[in-house]
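Team,

Forwarding the record for the chain on the shared tracking sheet. I've put the sequence and predicted structure together so nobody has to dig through attachments.
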Amino acid sequence: MKVVLVAVVLLLVVIVAGILAYRFAVRDDNQNQAVMAQEEPTPESGAVPEVEVGGEKLVLVPSSQSDARVDEAGLGFKGSEDVRHLLSPPAKTEVAKGSNSDSAYRPDDAIDWVVDVEFDGSPILQRKTILEVFDIQWMEANGKPEIYGWSPEDNHWTFLRAARVPETYTKLALGWSLFDPIDQASFDTTAEELSARKVSVSKAAEKLGVAKMRWNRSAKEAVEVADSINGAVANCNRDVLVVLAAPHERTYAGREIWDVMLCLGLRWGDMDLFHWENTDGSLGDDFLFSVWTSTSPGYFLPEEIAAGRVRVENLVFGYSIPRSADPKSVFESMMKAVQYAQERLGGEIHDAQGQPLDEAAIMQEIEGIVEKLNEVGFTPGEDSTLRVF
């Protein structure tokens, strides 16, 4: 029994890691836009974006294609009853600072080391000239900052190295990320190295005009902030996981699972999982919580469900605490979803270690994580937090 339990826990860890990797790979936020290729793939080119998770290549497709798969499988989009009222969306909050606004296309002062560069007389600078000064060799030698520019063509900040952007600029901003969320790597540059970069930026900028530079923090402060972010990730990068385990020597049938999820208002989609979508414009992740299984392969294919070939040993409900704008409220709703699924499917509710669930302890952990995040300047669900976690 202990061996089986350990295996289940390990598989849960692998699946969660895959979901987190996918989340970083596909989220349409600042770090994704910052690494846009000079020429983006177009529908005409036939290029299809892919992401590799756990050694498996996954194709990124629009939701319309996912819906077409469901329709073709004949599974339907409505459950046998409507119990969406069981899930109460978090109170609508203001969109995170910088979201859907011009500041979303310039460095994030909270987690980047930033220099703003203006020029006497506000000369019109050509994009080509700027990129010749801050060329690949310069970027490699200076920590690969992202370059942003203010364009008089549309009076907006944008990424200079992205495709289909303006050709003229009057102001620049360079940003060095103080934490790498993909590799979970901390900023390991010393204050002395950062000071050398300040000199390098100054010399390069003078090639474009008489430059005035404004740094958002000193080199020493940048290192301190990087250390703070690294500590926050180590202490606060936590997921809430609740497992509904099938009764002894039984499994859950795919069609029954599909109906339960639709009754709750969850949608099948990304990563071939079920999601309670964050659709009201609030802060936080694209999904309030998701549902998967530790039974291989860990996800749900509508074609396999329709064919009656899906039977799983459990359902895993989960979400990230720091990526949720209201982690306490989401936990309460998620528990109602788990309990409804239990009423419909049977089984026992466990934590990720296979132990009886202690809701009070989980709520206490959530409160503690939120408090720690706030202490280091992060608010759950806000843009800066989403970029780090």
